[in-house]
Amino acid sequence: MKQFIVLMAVLPILLLFMLQFTYDQRTNQIIGQVQAIVYAAKEEAKQVGCFTEEMKGNIKVDIGRVTGVSPDEVQVISDGVVKYRYAAGENRLIYYTVRVPIEEVMAGSAMFRIDPSENKYIYVIDSYTASEKV
Amino acid sequence: MKVIIVFLGLLIVNVTFLTYQGDIGRYVHGQTILKATAEECAAGAALLLEEEAFSQGQIVFDKVAAQEYADGHLAYVMKGFDGGETAYYECALSFEDDECGYEANNVDQIPAVTATIKVKTGDLFRLPFFTVTDVVRKAKYELVY
Lengths: 134, 145
Fold this sequence. Notes:
The complex is a heterodimer of chains A (134) and B (145). Chain A is of the alpha+beta class and 134 residues long.
C-alpha cells in the first residue's frame, strides 16, 4: 500500500516528462515546417523581386495548414517594392520577417500554474535575400 | 528507500532525454539556418560580376564585393542565431570563373561560387558527455546563362 501511494505521487511527475517529449517534438516539427515554407517563398521572391501580397497570404495559409497555427496570427513583414538585380547596394536586397506564435511549449501548464499567454513564444525568421529579377 | 532510488534514476534518465531532445532540435534548426545562409551568401555573391570583363564576354566575379556581401549577410543572420555563446564565425568564398579557372569536374565550365560557413560557438549541448562547438555548412551556386 505504501508503495502504491508513492507511485501515485511520482506518476504525474513522470508522465509530465512523456508529455513534454511530444510537445517538444511538435514544436520542432512546426519550426522545421516554417523554415521550409519561408525558404520556398524566399526563392520565389528572388525571382519576382519582392514578397507580393499574394505570396504573403500563401505563406500564412501554408504555415496555418501544416502547423495548426491560425493564419491570422502569422505575421509576414516585407515591403512590396520590387527590387532589381542590377540595382546598387541595398536597393537589390529584399528584407523579410516572418513571426509565428508557437503555443503550449511546456507541458503541465495548469499544474505549474503557467498562464497560456506566458506558455508560448514567437519564432522569428528575419533575413534578406538578393533579388534576381532583371 | 528503494522506491526513491528508482524514482531518482527515472528522473535523471528523463531529464537527460529531455535535455538532449531540446539541444538536438536547436542544433538541427541552427544547421538548417546556416545552410540557407550559405546558399544565400553564394547566390548573392554570384550576382556580382566584373562589368568590364562581362562587356568583353567573360564571366568574372567581383571578389571584393562578393566577400562583402557574404560577410554582411552572415553577420545579419548571426545576430539572431540561437547557438549559445557565439565566439567566432566566418564565410569563405571560392570562385570558379574565367579568371580563377574551373574545377576538373566542372566540364561544362559553369561559373560558380562556393560558400563555406564556419561557426565556432560555446558547447551547443548541455549534457556533459556530449560536446559540439563547431558547425560547418557549405553551398554552391552555379550561374547558368
